Q: What sequence folds into this?
């Protein structure tokens, strides 16, 4: 869907406007954009499994792992990523974070260009971000941008594609890997395990 509304807001006003509103909205370049609601079972499963995987290995005293409710404001855009990891602490009543360390977006048919291009450009400009993952909802494929370890600490121009159930997603900053098999169990064309 991703339909722009005839409504321009600054990020602070948008966060107040969106509270309690039915539907799903983001702010893109100062314009309110209605997002697709009613995602597929696969979308929900993949996002939930990322959240579960991160919660299983990250110390909750050090890290917050959240799913889709906490906003990330990036200039004149405000996004609600499917999964967000930030350092623990902060104001429990805050509506947004300015320092996510890892973000995950699960692709929907209407979000491919936005997630792989527009959001990638916005997210990769965040100084706190260490990794951005875009995940297929229908087959075991993810695209990941991670900061370099070559001394520049820059993101690569293009993501690394990880394709297949037998491939791990190595997250260098955190020092662990997530098994694609556990994220995509029962999803896609490969035999179920």
A:
């Amino acid at each position: 869907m991703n339909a722009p509304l005839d409504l321009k807001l600054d990020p602070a006003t948008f966060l107040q406007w969106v509270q309690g509103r039915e539907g799903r909205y983001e702010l893109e370049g100062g314009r309110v954009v209605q997002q697709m609601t009613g995602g597929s079972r696969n979308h929900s499963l993949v996002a939930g499994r990322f959240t579960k995987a991160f919660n299983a290995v990250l110390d909750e005293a050090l890290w917050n792992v959240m799913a889709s409710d906490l906003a990330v404001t990036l200039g004149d855009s405000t996004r609600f990523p499917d999964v967000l990891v930030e350092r623990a602490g902060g104001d429990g009543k805050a509506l947004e974070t300015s320092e996510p360390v890892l973000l995950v977006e699960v692709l929907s048919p209407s979000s491919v260009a936005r997630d792989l291009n527009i959001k990638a450009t916005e997210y990769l400009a965040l100084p706190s971000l260490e990794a951005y993952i875009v995940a297929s909802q229908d087959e075991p494929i993810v695209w990941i941008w991670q900061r370099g370890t070559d001394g520049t600490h820059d993101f690569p121009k293009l993501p690394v594609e990880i394709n297949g159930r037998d491939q791990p997603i190595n997250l260098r900053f955190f020092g662990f890997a997530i098994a694609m098999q556990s994220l995509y169990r029962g999803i896609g064309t490969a035999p179920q395990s």
